[in-house]
Structures are given as C-alpha cells and as structure tokens.
Amino acid sequence: EQYAESGGGLVQPGGSLRLSCAGSGFPFSEEIMTWHRQAPEKAREWVATLFPGGATFYTDSVKGRFTISRDDTKNLLYLNMSSLKPEDTAVYYCQKAQSSTWGQGTQVTVSS
Prior knowledge:
By secondary structure, this protein is an all-beta fold.
C-alpha cells in the first residue's frame, strides 16, 4: 500500500487549506480512512476518521473546523481545514485504519 499526501502550505491564522491523499495498493473504497498529524517535537496524533458508509469522527481540537471526505472513484481522501490556528501546524499524514505504512506527509504551517 502507498499514500501520497499533498496540499499543505503556509497559511495565516483563520485561513483554510484542503489536503489530498492518494491511496493505492489496497481496496480504497472498502477501507476506513484516517488523517493524522505530527507537530514539531510532539508525538503523532490522530485527527479524523471516515468510514466507508460515511460516518466521521474527529479529535476534539478540530471539531467544527475540519471535514474529512473521500472520492472513491479516484481513490482520494481529503481534509478540508478552516479557521486554522498556529497549533494546527504539523506534518499531516493519511492511511487506512490500523495500517503500519505511512506516506511522506504534507507540511501545514499556520503563521502570520
């Protein structure tokens, strides 16, 4: 399995970004998909989960600001992020649930 995250960048506080993740090497549409992030000098943390049936779950710190979605026709996972805060600065990763494989991630920096 492989993951290729993209869409990160530098954004001002209060701004928005849309991350994308291309998954390959597994039956994408059948899998529970997740986003995680790792801030500087901190452990990687779970951000959001999307079930094939559409159910979503978020860590408390991003509820109401982030939205996870998917396009199973293209094997793409998305993370729409709004009202970004400096504490959202991290490298963001996607993977199917319970995988031990990680992609290269995409850097999100929230700073004025």
